[in-house]
Design a protein that fits this description.
This protein has about 250 residues and is α+β, with helices and mostly antiparallel strands. Helix content is about 35%, strand content about 25%. Mean pLDDT is about 85; it is low at about 1-25 and about 225-240.
Length: about 250
């Protein structure tokens, strides 16, 4: 019997062993059990890197070996002309989140007749993921890194399964991401070029895995960079940055 006289749920039931209405949501220390499990799945996924400088943002992801005669899964995705994304975790969940990002970008373009800004995109997918933590459903077992350019410049965001998102200049998710992030932090320079960033991200993934990796890469380049309109004339300059898979 609860304090208001109504019959309540029994305590110490469910995963968390607490006395709240949904005790299985929370574990020791108030941690969200299902989100922690989703993060564990992310930590078993492909080692994936995001690097940002004032002139470009780079996405790199390890392509895991597959069975004979099976093509590897795509790891770098174009969301809109000025933004791309990658992820680590369950590939089915990653693909669903990529579709959601693309849909939101197109809705914004049709409604406002302008490309979506990167922070709005990160906030949207963060809210989308957070909704899975409110109801009794499985959270998406995927973390996403978003890279793009908008009116505020080049942007890089990481979004976790619980909906928390971060903006920064360097991220690593997936298998042995702590090792990869340490390499990125040691080698990062705001003045580095694209080739240097590719070399650094590949080195970080290789150190994390302990083997020579096969890596897929994408980059968004701002018009401040001399390579921005490589062979595409003045029209490219007017349109702003562009995301390309390398």
């Amino acid at each position: 019997m609860s304090e208001n006289g109504m019959t309540g749920p029994t305590s110490n039931s469910g995963f968390g062993g607490g006395s709240s209405r949904y005790p299985y949501y929370y574990g020791p220390g108030g941690r969200l059990v299902l989100v922690d499990s989703a993060l564990e799945a992310v930590n078993r996924g492909s080692t994936t890197i995001g690097i940002k400088t004032p002139n470009f943002a780079l996405l790199s992801s390890h392509i895991k070996p597959t069975k004979a005669l099976v093509d590897p899964a795509e790891k770098i995705f174009t969301i809109d002309r000025h933004v791309g994304a990658t992820g680590s975790g369950y590939i089915g969940d990653i693909l669903q989140l990529i579709d959601e990002l693309r849909l939101e970008a197109q809705k914004h373009k049709l409604t406002f007749e302008s490309p979506i800004d990167i922070s709005s995109l990160a906030k949207h997918i963060g809210s989308y993921l957070h909704n899975y933590t409110i109801y009794a459903v499985r959270p998406q077992a995927a973390s996403i890194i978003i890279a793009g350019e908008d009116q505020t410049g080049v942007q890089l965001y990481q979004v976790d399964p619980g909906g928390t998102f971060f903006r920064g200049s360097g991220f690593a998710i997936g298998q042995s991401s702590d090792i990869a992030l340490d390499i990125i932090q040691r080698g990062y320079s705001a003045d580095m070029g694209i080739d240097q960033a590719i070399e650094l991200s590949t080195k970080a993934i290789e150190r994390a895995l302990g083997e020579k990796p096969l890596v897929e890469t994408g980059v968004v380049i701002t018009n401040k960079n001399g390579e921005a309109a490589r062979g595409e004339g003045e029209e490219q300059e007017k349109k702003g940055g562009q995301f390309k898979k390398l």
